[in-house]
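Z., the sequence and structure:
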Amino acid sequence: MQDMILFLVAFLLLFGAKKVPELARGIGKAMGEFKKSREEFENEVTHAVKQAETEVIAPQPAAQVPVTKDASATKPV
C-alpha cells in the first residue's frame, strides 16, 4: 500500500493536479476505443466462421482434358 501512495505522489508531482483528470480521461477513452475495436473484430470473426459453416461447398467438377489422337498411332509402321 505504501508503494501505491508513493507512486501517486510522484505522479502528482510530475504531471500536476490539473493534468491528472485530463490524463485519466484520455486513458479511459483509449481503453473504450480499444474495447470497441476488439468487440468488432470478434464479431467479424464469429460472423465469418458461422457463414463458412452454413455454406455448402459444392464439389468442383473434374478438369476436362481434351482428348487428342496420337499421330504416331494412326501411321502404319
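The chain has a mean pLDDT of 82. Helices lie at 2-15, 19-54, 71-74.

Let me know what you think.
H.
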